[in-house]
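Contributing: when you submit paired examples, paste them exactly as shown. First protein:
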Amino acid sequence: MSDLTAPAFRELHKQLRAANAWADPERGALAALTRARVAAAAALVRSGRTVALGAPVETAAGPDNPDPAEHRMTALPTGVGLSFARDRFAMNVHGDVDSHLDALCHVSYDGTLYGGVPATAVTAAGATALTVDVLGGALAGRGVLLDIPRLRGTPWLEPGSCVSADDLRAAESAQRVRVTEGDLLLVRTGHRRRREALGCSPARAGLHPRALEFAAERRVAVLGSDGNSDAAPSPAAGVAYPVHVLAVQAMGLHLLDYLALEELARVCAQEDRWAFLCVVAPLRLPGATGSPVNPVALF
């Protein structure tokens, strides 16, 4: 049962849009990711350890992956003289399995994109505003992992569970880290670990819509998760993906969906630090509403 009524959701949407009025009209909350903050994040690299945050691309169909990525060989080596192996790759960028970034043109609500841009800016030929191009093919800053299953003493959150703003603050305290302005906030729910152990579920753990108040308060630049940040079933009446609406459309937050955070959580625990340099390199796809990504955490 939804615990956020339709009027309450609209009021929260209005509140968060106003709270992020400082954000850039094209780059959104990336405005908080200044050069000085990127340089400070680079100083976090001390041990030289690297962790890939992108999951292996899945080419097999499944209940949560009905439109899997396609990989096929287009040429094979001949074995005579010089020859080349060649292949082709195609992908549903916004699926429910593969790691990807959501651009600010990805979510329309009441006919508008982020910043009041008309939804008609997205055409059959591609988007004409707020596309993945605004990242310039590169994004780097201070990443912070908040591990909610670790906080609760469990390997994963059960499907349908919601992470509150209080959970995020409690994880900060337990991990002795603080999310600050311009950070790339990554929230582990254990979604991938549970999927690997028990298979996929139509329900999914994620953030409660009101947890976005934490993101607005701290002025984070990017939000990511090992799910898609939204809980299913939705806790907001009449809105299937409330976190997507609030983060992308109201606040101008680029989302990183379906990341692989298990190894990152292990390394953070081993290093005893939960902040790191995080580098994201989306494909430079003109007019695209998102991109597959393999972010890298550096310690």
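Second protein:
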Amino acid sequence: MSQLEDEISDVLNKAMRGLGKTPSEVSREMVMDEAVLQQVLDGAYDKVALGKLARVLNLDAEALLALPTYKPEVTSVAGVKRLIMPFRSWSVNAWLLERNGVSLLFDTGWNPMDILSELNGIQPAAVFITHAHEDHIGGVKALQEKGIKIISEKEALEVGEFEFGEIKVQVMDLSGHCVPTASYWVTGFEKPLWVVGDAIFAGSMGGCKSPENFKMAVESLRKGFECLDAASLILPGHGPMTSVSLEKTSNPFHEYFS
């Protein structure tokens, strides 16, 4: 099972930044020495401190404490392939969906040679972009040069729906981590699929540069979680596949969006 994108310290720092809280402010609310808080923010596993932090940051304490061992158990679906490619010292996902001879690609990774190698001659009917961060659009030009249609996040949000044979793609706005962000609810497979870019990960969500963006992110996620089937599989831009039902209980941020 692949690693999660975020560790506990990442979740805590994203929540603090999203709420516009400084370590000094949080330590006062927790009635805890700031040096102890900083150790936890740097990765120390202190159950008592993490429980207090969860309450102050409106995170689910049980999910937060369980994050180091969280492995989303989802059954793979025929025709759904995760393409894991290098991005500096990390990795990034693209998703290749194939049904009855029709292929669709979601995002392109960072290095054009990587996505060309992963596709290995497959010519997708279209490439859908979730958001314009460099690790998700690095292969756009190379794919365009091969005559493959690229559908940007802006175009997708304007059009709203697409159909390719038995595959139907409904576009949902998940702006917040990046503005704009298009997510894609895809039907025509054994289970519905939600391609979300960096809006949400297994056990975390995308970092936001300001409280305003964080509020936008959680509001857009709430709308998605309210309207999508719990069995829908979540295909994130980093980390393993998960599901709507799992993230409603196992994501420390779930109090914000479920």
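If you have annotations for the second protein, write them as plain sentences, like these:
The chain has two domains: 8-69, 80-257.
Residues 8-69 form a domain with the 434 Repressor (Amino-terminal Domain) fold (CATH 1.10.260.40).
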